[in-house]
Write a structure and sequence with these properties.
Blueprint lengths: L2 E4 L7 E4 L4 E3 L4 E5 L2 E6 L3 E3 L7 E5 L8 E10 L2 E10 L2 E10 L10 E4 L6 E4 L2 E3 L10 E5 L4 E5 L2 E6 L3 E5 L5 E4 L9 E4 L4 E2 L3 E2 L2 E5 L13 E3 L14 E3 L5 E4 L2 E2 L10
Antiparallel strand pairs: 1-2, 3-6, 4-5, 4-12, 6-7, 7-11, 8-9, 9-10, 10-11, 12-13, 14-17, 15-16, 15-25, 17-18, 18-24, 19-22, 20-21, 22-23, 23-24, 25-26
């Protein structure tokens, strides 16, 4: 298995793992659909289908087969032959949402089922809901309070200024600087209806575009966000506002930071 930092997505390195690497997931993993618990396992496997994060593969013995319908269709995948199944519970259906792997699968995958993440209503690691995809065991996210002087600006206009930021350090991303709302110039922010989710932070409660001279210019949309109810590990950022360093100027203790480039803005 290889887990090395690689300069993916232009300038900013990300931690990647070999495709088809399989390892045991030490967490209890559950998911629900149509108000029913579809599986409950302490023997899930992490399988890296892409280099940057894994998916969960669930042992068939831990799946409630009442809700899994064989569709009689097989397909070839990188992990081996997958037999397509649908989900059905409480009158709701998700065709083709499950792939079941037989004996020709790669080591560690035979006898497991791979569920499409979005087809299920909710996923849980232990007793905490997790969003988008499993958390990568090789990614670390820390939220640390600080007394650095941080200023966010755009085209010379100050958007936020604080001496009490929260700094979020996440593997493969630039440091994000979170500002208390009392330190943000909301006169220059326009709320949008955008909502996103993160496996490590939870679901955003709001996004804002930046308005300069009364206008939201092209490329200034959705540059700030907040998590009012983040995951337990990221509670220090609750209700605070962060900006994309890729599009906003950030000064820390009087020094302008170089603008990073990440997969968010290519």
């Amino acid at each position: 298995m290889s887990a090395v930092p690689v300069a993916a997505d232009r300038d900013y390195p990300q931690m990647i793992v070999e495709i088809n690497h399989v390892e045991p997931a030490p967490r209890r993993v559950r998911a629900t659909f149509g108000g029913e618990q579809v599986f409950d396992t302490t023997s899930a496997r992490y399988v890296w289908e892409v280099p940057y994060y894994p998916q969960y593969y669930i042992p068939l013995g831990d799946v409630d087969t009442r809700f899994v319908i064989d569709e009689g269709h097989a397909q070839s995948t990188r992990q081996g032959t997958a037999h397509r199944h649908g989900l059905r519970a409480a009158g709701a259906e998700r065709p083709g949402a499950v792939r079941v792997f037989g004996e020709d699968a790669i080591a560690g995958v035979a006898g497991t089922a791979r569920f499409d993440w979005g087809a299920l209503d909710a996923w849980y690691e232990e007793d905490e809901q997790v969003f988008v995809h499993p958390r990568n065991p090789y990614v670390r996210v820390d939220a640390l309070r600080s007394h650095r002087h941080v200023r966010a600006s755009l085209d010379g206009v100050t958007l936020a200024d604080t001496t009490a930021p929260v700094l979020v350090f996440e593997t493969g991303l630039p440091t994000r600087y979170y500002f208390d709302r009392t330190d943000v110039a909301f006169a220059h922010l326009v709320p949008s209806g955008t909502q996103t989710a993160c496996p490590y932070k939870g679901v955003t409660s709001g996004y804002w575009s930046v308005r300069i001279d009364g206008t939201v210019r092209d490329g200034h949309q959705d540059l700030a966000w907040a998590y009012d109810f983040p995951t337990r590990q990221l509670l220090p950022i609750a209700g605070q506002i962060a900006f994309y360093n890729e599009k906003i100027d950030i000064d820390v203790d009087g020094r302008r930071l170089p603008g990073p480039r990440t997969h968010f803005f290519k």
